[in-house]
Fold this protein.
Amino acid sequence: MAAEYSKDTFETEVLKSEQPVMVDFWSDGCPPCKRLAPVIDALAESNDSAKVGKVNVGQHMELAMEYGITAVPTILVFKGGEIVERMQGYRDQDELQKVIDSHAASA
């Protein structure tokens, strides 16, 4: 299961992480988000080289605003506290794994 990040945990778990972190910004009423949820959970379970988590934009609007989230799902990859990848819309597990691998390999 993917970790659920909040304003209280985001800095420690994402920005200060030694590993790359993939964060899915999602909302409850979003069909593509619901389709993406099991993919994010599977990636969280299967990766040792990166962290995978999510932020519910309805509960954590301040994080969504801070990172310029204008549509959901939006997936951001953070490395060294910086955004290194930004994707909007549904992506399949293979595509997201390739993104993780590309950033984990250069860690």
Summary: The first helix runs from residue 7 to 15. Strands lie at 3-4, 21-26, 51-56, 74-79, 82-88.
